[in-house]
## 1
Amino acid sequence: MKKHLRKILTFNNQAIKNNPSFHPNNKHKSGYDVDALCEVYPYLTPFVFENNFQTKTIDFANPKAVKALNSALLVKHYNIRFWDFPEANLCPPIPGRADYIHHLSDLLKGSKITESISVLDIGTGASCIYPILGNSEYKWKFTGVDIDESSLKYAQQIITKNGLNDSISLMHQKDKALIFNDILNTTVRFSATMCNPPFYKSEEEALNATSKKLQGLNSKEAKVVRNFSGTHKELWYKGGEKAFLHNYLYESSLFKQQCFWFTTLVSKKDLVKGMQDSLKKLGAVNVKIIPMGQGNKLSRIVAWTFLTPEEQKKWIETV
């Protein structure tokens, strides 16, 4: 049973190699060089084995193996030497997170925003993943926001131990019902916001989703374990993804001049039409839907701006 689950899950690396939907600038679009990763991060070695296709890979059902793999990717490709946080916190898959960064770069370049780029990361988490990737790839400056003080403590350790205090700062959102309120104000501007919203309405819904995934893989494991972990503050929100996103849209309309592009990942395609309708009512000038492939998973980025062409031109001139 465990062997069968492992056999199926080890297709992940091959799936990445065969998937053309990764951004052209994504360093992981051709898969993983496991030997090279083990060389720079020996802690990965115990989790590596050879599958039936004589390909070295890891058991993607094992949270510790997943974290070791992503740590190795950060060391080899992004010069992140320290990346540690509790096992309970979400361990983000690096290839998909990097894709968001590259698509955001294209969006900014398309608007002729190429200098002094600053990004507001909503829900930065204990891993601080978007700020460290965005700074490594494009030297952007980041402000990471989270409602969980414990997550911010671990994120700060990552920032400090990698020498990134001049490029990445953190803020605590004290009210979990708010997103931009108490964070944005008239004295600060951001080139863009980014967000990976919570998907589920409750812990029960998150566990049920994991159970169905494992059942689809013919697993007979008695205990449900999320291979990428995640605390309740990271994975679920009252009302689920839909409620979070519409709160995000509404609050963005209260700070129209503070950010050039507001962006977010959207996992459920069915939510996009409602978001477009809401943004039209809120006065968005331009809304873009950016398809994004993450291995076998299809997602999308929704981006919008409230700035008129004249305001956009003035913004760029004053950067």
Note: The first strand starts at residue 48 and ends at 50.
## 2
Amino acid sequence: MRAEVDAAGFEFISWRNAPIGEAADPADVSNLRDRMRRVVFEPCSAYATDIRDEIGRLPTDAVLSVDFLFGAALGAEASGVPLAFLSPHVSLRILPGIPPATSGLGQPKTPEERAEVAAACAALNDAMNASLPILNRARVDFGLPVLPDVMDLFDRADRVLLATSRAFDFEASSLPDNFRYIGPLLDVPNWSNFWQAPWPAQRDRPRALIACSTGAQNQRDLFQRVIDAVGKIEIDAVFTAGPNLDVVDFRAPQNVNLMHGAPHNSVMADVSLVISQGGHGTVTRSLINGLPQLVLPMARDQLANAARVEAKGVGLRLGPTASEQEIAAAINRLITEPQFKVAARKLGDAIRVDIDASGLVNEMELLGALGHQRRSHS
């Protein structure tokens, strides 16, 4: 993120004790419980130490941390500084009436579906609480009380800011008092290239964006199948590999153009549909551009986003092992059946309203004022 931070004009400070690179974000996501232990819980003390040291280095009025950095919450709490968890996806905290972010289930409507969602919530809670002793040891080391449940960490935060649209999300039975929807946060990464349409302007046929996730998830084989499927359809497409794949590792038919990166807003203004793993940014950007989408989720929040895409009628979902024939059939449906585009435009308009009304800055100013007041009286 250094280039992004430098471009925004802020001081960049590297983690000193906490892991970085693949150690902080391993590509193997096959075992949720093991991944959570290695990525979220075991580095807790290291993240907390870095946060506490930085708060001690410069006067700090508030901490804004991505929600997976539980250690950042410990460092802020131990320092007496207000904390906001930022969820750049649907809620990681389990919410009543909503399937957990890891399940890929839809909004429950029948007793059977509610039972299935309850079981999925219990499974996620068990997976998280399997590492609760690690979290509590770190809390004791930092002079903090132990927690009976990992989810209590979210309740101790001053704010949990959901950077998604309420129109896109499922409806919870209730929300904790510290939860706020602030709308999606969308920007163009500085590694994406200038966009110049690679297809002939006069050719009148559908066009697609094939967008690979920016995270490393061993997804090369999946996208080769997608590219091969698109090669069998009368459309043009551009494939953006992102920072973790190399275009030289792919073979492409004549109707698919391979690129390292491109500004997706510009590309989406020139295409008919989007094919992706279902990352929150890509899904949301597709919607505000009124584009139907095919989602092939692999991990992280992609299953949750795919479930919402399917439930809202704005696209189709396939598993990451889908065949070329299945992928081609789904793309043909999105091209020929107009209801997907109609639904995408409607939901996209609602998301734009949420973006325009975002309360992120206001919420952080309130927390900053609270933290400043605490420092003034300490």
Note: The beta strands are 63-66, 83-87, 159-162, 179-181, 207-211, 236-240, 256-259, 273-276, 293-295, 315-317.
## 3
Amino acid sequence: MLSLIQNEWMKWWTTKKAKIVLALYVVIAVGIIIVAKTNDFEFTRYDYYSLTFVLLTSLLGIITIVFTAEAIGNEVRYDTMKHLLMSPYSRMTIYFSKLIFSILIMLFQFVFIAAIVY
């Protein structure tokens, strides 16, 4: 099952979407700082942390749903699900590994968001 999760990781990381999403998190965090500085908002450090963290974690939920749907949808779309089902893994193992992969990606993005904000 670890090989299935590694396979999903390689497929996710080689797409442009993954890098675009991580760059989007950085752009939003920097954008909030720029808007606050140019409009002379009196942001305390706590206000910045809370606003940025809430905004980015709300995006995290939406993006995680999209990545999870794509993990299964792309297998069916590109007919690679047939190849996976011919492997020695059961259908439940394949779907469970995709679920674990989605959870790991969500946690990775959460840690990335926390690192950006702090």
Note: Residues 2-117 form one domain.
## 4
Amino acid sequence: MSPEDQLQYQNQKMVKPRHVAIIMDGNGRWATKQGKLRMSGHQAGAESVRRAISFAVSYQLDALTLYAFSSDNWSRPNQEVIALLELFVLVLDAEVKNLNKHDIRLNIIGDTTRFSHRLQDCIRCAEEKTQNNQGLILNIAVNYGGRWDIIHGVRALAEQVRDGSLLPEEIEEKTLSAHLCLSAIVPVDLVIRTGGEYRISNFLLWQAAYAEFWFTDILWPDFDENVFQGALHAFAKRERRFGGIAL
């Protein structure tokens, strides 16, 4: 049995998540351990992104969300931030053809207004070129923060209350959810964090309310198909009760 056939067989036997989100941590520490500049770690991390996307397609996930650049990352050295954003532009330009080849739809979430016009145009162009694809939905979170997401949604509701199109008592969970990122996508089932930290770092605070979490000490550039598979096997063993009790 070929590796592809084995993966397909395993997919049929396992309880599968539909939407996986990943906090990609450890690029800088990986580079330090290698005696290289931090930017080398981010470049190696880009290769891990490609591997993760390829695996998600093979595993037939509905959605994959990657935390690429937090709204808190602006506090990093300016040279590193500029290099990170430039790398993002290069990867977007290079990968659109491959995304179309594999029927992947790109969706960028976060406050992109702080980016240069060049990067904003690059994001818009990449999304438009993949908008009709019907396979994996690939969400890339850039300048994203869970608190920003919730505040952005609350402001949208406040505008509706102010103009009279919404009454305060009509605001429910689903009302706010509709104004948050990823509202039109299946809920997050599994959040993976690499790099050995045990926190969610302001990532999908609302959307991950009932997600399972899986943490690993493996640094992001070393994250490969075997590690991804291990996370999914762990997920398959979880009992998801969504606030209820086991039957």
Note: The beta strands are 19-23, 63-70, 105-109, 137-144, 190-193, 212-215.
